[in-house]
């Protein structure tokens, strides 16, 4: 008899213990590596494996922070830094080239519950622009710094710089040559000229959300062109219950204040996150002539990753722990 009682007792005790300790608060993260014209012909199996590995590494970096009880702000910065360091994305190393053959980088970060935000634009030598954006947020009285001033600030703050060669990849250089050729032939730029921006959104155990975005902008850009990524409310936004990072044809995302519009619908109309994100990305952006996608999260950890292009590099770890990476539409 005893031999039966003991395990039963043990089981009962385990059950009581489980009922006493509440389930840990939910955490979740989503990342993107850019939306645009993507075809299987351009991405062979080896390249796809490298890209998915980079997305997984970014997910691990961000989710690791959340799992240890760290803030969403740290998680999105950690995930974006991994993607900036990868040559496969248009941010940090691997950024696209301007018309003059340089790299000009933009980034932003925002914490929802405090509405603190920081961004930088048009910097040329900062190794991890997202961390510079965070420094603007935390260590200056400003929200946005541009160009040489932003770099002078970053130098004062001891942030890491890199030589111009660090950012260069042959693929991006070839894209610039192709864009120049099309321009000389008076052809429209390729839709893929702005592909590869990176971003992250996260929910931490305190119920706080944050967003971060980093980009090299558009191939062949000139005149100090700045896209949506560093514009708070356009490419990057977070409030108490919603966070968004965008990618796509930045001019349209600025004109529609895409990231803010999605979260405003959640806040003011009570629209579910997915419906809000779908309406903006699948209807309003294309109606105006733009294209791209977003990643969005709400304070319950619901995720939405809509895009209206043929593909979007993306990854997620949901509140139930399920994770994935995807590139094409049919991948999910
Ligand atoms: N949205 C970025 C920009 O317009 C580009 C991108 O998403 O790839 O600068």
The share of residues in extended strands comes to 15-25%
Overall pLDDT score: 92
Helical segment count? 10
CATH level-3 fold name: Glutamine Phosphoribosylpyrophosphate, subunit 1, domain 1
Ligand names: aspartic acid
Supply Rg.
21 Å
Tell me about the largest β-sheet. Answer: 8 strands, mixed
Report on this structure.
The protein is of the alpha+beta class and 332 residues long. It has one domain (25-331): (Glycosyl)asparaginase (Glutamine Phosphoribosylpyrophosphate, subunit 1, domain 1). 39% of the residues lie in helices and 22% in strands. The strands form 2 sheets. It has an 8-stranded mixed sheet with strand order 4-3-2-6-5-1-11-12. A 4-stranded antiparallel sheet has the order 7-8-9-10. Helix 4 links the parallel strand 3 (116-123) and strand 4. Helix 2 packs antiparallel against helix 3 and helix 3 runs antiparallel to helix 4 (129-139). The longest helix has 23 residues, at 45-67. The radius of gyration is 21 Å and the shape is globular. Aspartic acid binds next to strand 8.
